Amino acid sequence: MSQDPIQPSGSVPPYDPAQSKRVVAGILGILLGAFGAQRFYLGDTKGGIIRLVIGVVTCGAGGIIGLIEGIMYLTKTDEQFYQEYIVNKKAWF
Q1: pTM (two decimals)
Q2: CA 20 to 30 Å from 41, out of 8, 19, 29, 65?
């Protein structure tokens, strides 16, 4: 019988390529970055609302933030993306 090892409290869950959200988050950042769609997709509601407000206040010019984030997501490996944005929940760039 094989049992899954129990993760100690506070440990980092193992990387699972099937759980990667990198490509979808990158595309959302590039196409809908002014609305904070990539942050909402990653589960960062606060960051999504901040980017949405910035986009509305700047009449969409704040979408450059989403564009930059989307490109950064797509240039990282799946493992780097997972560690930075899923595990560590990096908020900006």
Answers
A1: 0.77
A2: 8
